[in-house]
Structure prediction request, 331 residues.
Amino acid sequence: MGSAVSQLRLNPLTGRWVTIVAERAERPTDFAPRTTEVEADPDRPCPFCPGNEEASPPAIETLDEGGHWRMRVVPNLFPAFDGEEPFAVHHLGPVHVEAEASGIHEVFVITPEHGGGSHTLTADDATDLMLVLKRRFQQHADTPNIRYTQAIINHGREAGASLAHPHGQILGLPFVPGEILDEQRAFSRFEGGCILCTTIEAELVDGKRVVFENDDVVCVCPYWSGSPFELLIIPRRHDLHITDADDQSVGAVGIAIRDSIAHLRAALGDLSYNLVFHTAPHHYSGEFHWHVHIWPKLVTTAGFERGTGVLINIVPPEAAAEQLRSIAVHA
Prediction:
């Protein structure tokens, strides 16, 4: 990349352009440290810590060991989506359209350790985390009004977490969200087979954006990164849905998530991030390849990004991957 030259790169998963501005790249130490306090009321007992189970609705699923739980899935006390009504659109006039926000909203407590996180999981725990998720996705797929399930982990207040205890959310939706529709269309349009299988091949040949890879998974800073240190975790086995993948592939993605966060933390400290799972909509049989996005929250979305939908990334993915690769992370 030439000196002081910005570059537009196309994100093939969304069809949107991103802007890479190399000369504005900041040193990692220049990024503002994240706010360590997450809860509005830090004196309130943590509802996700062992001993406070009565603060949550009864668990839907629990992994126990020696009389103590390792992971729990509980209904969200304040669900954004709830109920079994089929998706029905109501036109209240020429521009006002609404529908019932029916669906499922669950909280996934990933560890009993309040100060832990994805990066502290053992290989077995990281694998089990994914197997629990796979079971929840299957349960959602078997629920009549659920068309798509979105699993997320928000870490840190800047990323939207309202509780510090490591947890994720699993949302069963009665519709397919726009971001997934964009990806669906992109997979269908792509001429060369599968976008992500082709991405794996191209990135392994190039090598500049690969953070790590093994027989089951590849972790890259994607060529079209819209934000600093963005990561994409791609299972090497081509499966549409997380529920199609075998346990080996699913578990390997869990370990890759743990290692990805460990690399980010080693480079940037205890950063905030959003982690999202993208899988094909339930019962969809077209082109897709399930994958995981990790978006560190290092910069603020400004007016240009909001107004145009075009992201500006001040750390080229090649530079980010080189820095993350250079750090030895021990499991």
